[in-house]
Amino acid sequence: MFNQLRRLDCLLGKLLCLPFFLSGAGSGKKTPSFPEGVKKIACIKLWGLGNLAIIYPLLYRIKERFPGAQLIFITFAHNKGFLERNQAVDRVIYFECTSNIITIARQFFRLLAALKREGIDLVVNFETFNNISAFFSYLTRARGRIGLYTAKEKAFYNYPSYNEQALHISRLFLGLLKPLGINSEYKYFRYHGSEKEAQNVESLLRSLGIKEFICLHPGTSSNFKGKRYRAGNFAKLTELFMGAYGIPVLFTGAENESALIEDIIRRLPRSGSVVNLAGKLTLWELVELLKKTRLFISSDTGPVHIAASLGVNLAVFYGPTSPRRYGPLNENSRVFYKHMGCSPCVGAAYVHKRCRNGFACLDFSPQEAFAGISEKFFHAEKN
Questions:
Q1: What are phi and psi of 220, to 5 degrees?
Q2: Beta-strand (E) ranges in 173-248?
Q3: Which CA distances in Å does 348 have to 163, 164, 187, 260, 317?
């Protein structure tokens, strides 16, 4: 579905953008100064929990700039349960993630009509695949329209910002706030669950008889499975860590990733110190678990930036995406990336690319990964 929707956005978006660009209906020119008197703000980011984790602290800055304004956030329904904890967000509107064009069109126009009735003053579109969302931003008739562009969709904004592929995503998103007079450095948000969620995690660990552990996160949701480090390599890496350090391994993931984790566990010569927690934790219980882990190992996916924000020791495998764009910002992280000429191949500039190398960009041997992670985080024990 990921690639279908990306290509749909590219095709339909260009068809929508071209006549507006040629007619000059959208100027794409910045107004002299940002309009004051903002009472209602709509922020848009459909894809990616990791992107939402980066955006999360920026919403507080927007609200500080317009303390009396109502802030509405529009995102896909599979992100439910995350932005509700953000005190800067007054309301979250969910968009069903589907490749059905009729359903998309129905949601599009229903939401547009609702926002026009409310009278949105400012739209901040964080979407990076943004042809259709750029058109949507324009149709809201908000006085201030801020968003990223790579080509003609620039015409839909009066505060356009170029989608520079070489920039880290945090800098790209922070740059969208410059028209609002927000120019400070980016800082992660320090996430925390409720007291009850922390107690649930404590109870879980007690029931398992586990105090010290590491977490492995093999899945990458349904966003793009091509980013996954291979299951066989995860199994061997798990075996190496258990053999060298005797430390329990907790596998985390969504409920629909449980079968992937079971496949990894079946490949292990012994699984007594391995636990599959896929689908058994809420997102905020995962936050509390990550606070306690000695190490989090993952492919490029949403929980990476949550773990980074918590200061967790972190090892991440990159291939179709680049750490230059999506890497963790904390120093206690170990990134694996091959710098192949065909990578990155995921992003607004690569929507039509298909992998012809079997994702060789993720072919890090378990021994290579184990050595790099051990050197970074277990060096003292080795000596």
A1: -135, 35
A2: 214-217
A3: 9, 10, 25, 29, 21
Question: Distance of alpha carbon 301 from its chain centroid, rounded?
Answer: 6
pTM of the model: 0.90
State both tokens at 171.
């800098």
Report which secondary-structure segment, H or E, holds 101: helix 101-118
Tokens of 343: 């990578």
DSSP at 225:
G
> What's the token pair of residue 182?
């927000």
Higher pLDDT, 224 or 242: 242
Confidence of residue 10 (pLDDT cuts 50, 70, 90): low
Percent of the chain whose predicted confidence (pLDDT) is above 90: 70
Q: Supply 170's token pair.
A: 């945090």
Closest CA to 34 of 161, 159, 142: 159
Domains of the chain listed by start with CATH number: 2-180 (3.40.50.2000), 197-382 (3.40.50.2000)
The DSSP secondary-structure symbol of 127 reads: -
Structure confidence at residue 99 (pLDDT): 74
| Encoded amino acid at 266, one letter | R
User: In whole angstroms, what is the distance from residue 141 CA to residue 150 CA?
Assistant: 21
Residues in the chain: 383
Residue matched to tokens 């000596």: 383
Is residue 155 pLDDT above 80, yes or no? yes
Determine contact, residues 188/309, Cβ cutoff 8 Å.
yes
pLDDT per residue over 243-270, tens digit each? 999 999 999 999 999 999 999 999 998 7
